[in-house]
Amino acid sequence: MAKKIFPYLLLVPTFIIIAIFIYYPAFQTFKLSFYRMSPFGNRLFFVGFQNFWSLFTSGQYIQSALTTLIFVTVTVIGGLIISLLLALLLNERVPGIGVFRTLIFAPYAISPAVAGTLWAFLLSPVAGYVSYLFLILFKAQPQWLTTYPLALIAIMIATIWKNLGFNVIFFLAGLQSIPQSYYEAATIDGANSVHRLLRITIPLLSPITFYLIVMNVTFTAFSAFATIDVMTQGGPANTTSTLIYKLYQDGFVNFNTGFASAESVVLILIMAVFTYLYFKFGQKAVFYQ
Amino acid sequence: MKKNKMIRTILIEALLIFVTIIILLPLFLAVTMSLKKPSEVFVYPPTIFPNSFYIQNYINAFNSINLGRLMLNSLIMSVVIMIGKTIFGILSGYAFSNFRFKGSSLLFALLFVTLFMPAELIMIVPLFQIMQSLHWVNTYWALTVPFLASATTTFLMRQHFMTIPKELEDAAKIDGAGPMRFLLEILIPLSKSTIGGVAVINFVYAWNLYLWPLVVTNSNEMATAQIGLKMLTNVESTSNWGVIMAGTLMVLAPTLILFFAVQKLFVRGIVTTGLKE
After folding, report:
1. Do B271 and A267 touch (CB under 8 A)?
2. Residues 6+ apart with CB under 8 A from A92
3. How many domains does chain B have?
4. What confidence score (pLDDT) does residue A2 get?
5. Is the residue at B126 inside a domain?
């Protein structure tokens, strides 16, 4: 008997935690999204789909969704291309490659908030080196963090930079798992290096690329909160306010619980679609090592 | 042919040096800025190297936002989360890897879907309400308990335990060792580097948390180092970048040092868990 319950006992701590802090809040989110709180926060009124209705008719929410879409698309595609190029370079067998790898992996340890302050500094008008470089190169000195669309571009740069370490580590691991013999055979058949890249490397990297896309999208959409909060706080005129930033503002600055819960439900549904896609196409990548 | 190869190596080497410098330049410029006197910060055009070695910026960053306390809070939070996630992950991973029991695939699926449900981000409003009803707002409980278990650590440990030969378990059984003793005396010692990698990743993840500590703490006593960066940019209203960069580097130092110290474990942990942040 004791033997039979043993595996369940092992699972108890994990399931207590996720039940209280993931499943219960998920249930609450759905529930609250159908209610509105009284002005003093002591009573709940059932309002049906009204929160969702005001959500989808809110210009600010639509703007925030579009901002997120643009931000995530550019950051993920740009970041992955740069990371793949870096990984190809780091896959070369030249002296000292280990040192280069260690150094280029380093941004992994950097937090989104740290990336935010660093780039806020580099892009600042007087002391910032990037602004100065711009002045020399283009004879222009834009106000990066307070002008549209530059503020969003600034956050993209900081996020891409911060993500490099993680992406490069994965791409490099993927590259190293491709058997050398494939390349040798292709070379004998007369394929040049561009052909080898397009016909062998990129197709064989596709499981890892898929995995990285999923991770980067979720990471860029959510964890970039800290970068945004440090650099622009959603401004100028909400042009850097992504869905998660707006959720925070509605929930904890405007105290609009019902509205914020409806926003949460939308995010949960988006993540559910992602989970489905991940299972459908990403199985190989999950067990990749 | 040989000459071509050498030219190629030199070109690659040069390119590597160039991109490494570009990527690490922000950190380098932060270091030089952090050593500039206030009078040097806004010298125009900006100079790279400071005239002085102005350590006072670090002291000012420490004093202006109580950074010592914030870093202590981050340390407590990160160590507790690291230990909790790792221990609970080992236990649940062991359950899924070495036992057959009713409902195991259902429980596994229930755990798996949480991978895509970062509650502290997308369900932050109800999660905060739970903290309120537990009277945990502005306490270490709120900073740590919701993060003590995770699907990622469970899966990684499960996958790792599955690679350990079944014969070992049979041999242990014959010797009369129970399942707990087998875990503690055989499985865990055989998994040191995987456990180490996971622990380090979990530490960095916790250290870098931002939105949750921002929402759930409301005093300078309980906030964390990452939140300190926001405070620092607000306090330094004249944007004394010297002080802000000094603070930034201190907040970054623990994870960066850890990264360089145990880089092998780290990369192993990242590639096997795929855990971000």
Report:
1. no
2. B12, B16
3. 1
4. 67
5. yes
Chain B residues in contact with A128 (beta carbon < 8 A): 46
Tell me whether residues B125 and A264 touch, CB distance under 8 A: yes
Question: Three-class SS of residue A240?
Answer: coil
How far is residue A22's CA from residue B120's CA, in Å, rounded to a whole number? 9
Q: Is residue B83 part of a domain?
A: yes
Instruction: Look up the domain containing B185 and give its range.
Output: 65-231
CATH code of B202's domain: 1.10.3720.10
ipTM of the complex: 0.91
**Looking at residue A285, what is its pLDDT?**
46
How far is Cα A221 from Cα A243, in angstroms, rounded to an integer? 8
Q: Structure tokens of A246? A: 């707006």
Q: Per the omega criterion (within 30 degrees of 0), is the bond before A125 cis?
A: no
Query: B258 touching A, CB under 8 A?
Result: yes
Shortest Cα–Cα distance, B111 to chain A (Å): 8
B52 touches chain A (CB under 8 A): no
**pLDDT under 70: residue ranges of chain A:** 1-2, 39-41, 282-289
Whether A146 and A236 have beta carbons less than 8 Å apart is answered as yes
Please check whether residue B238 lies inside any domain of the structure: no
CA angle A12, A22, A220 (to 5 degrees): 130
**Cβ-nearest to B259 among A16, A109, A164:** A109
Residues of A numbered 76-135 whose beta carbons fall under 8 angstroms of chain B's beta carbons: which are they?
86, 89-90, 92, 94-97, 100, 102-114, 116-122, 124, 126-129, 132
What amino acid occupies position B31?
V
Q: Which residues of B touch A109 (CB under 8 A)?
A: 204, 252, 255-256, 258-259
Is the residue at B45 inside a domain? Answer: no
- Provide, rounded to the nearest whole percent, the portion of chain B with pLDDT above 90: 62
* One-letter identity of residue B246: A
Instruction: Specify the pairing of strand A44-46 against strand A35-37.
Output: antiparallel
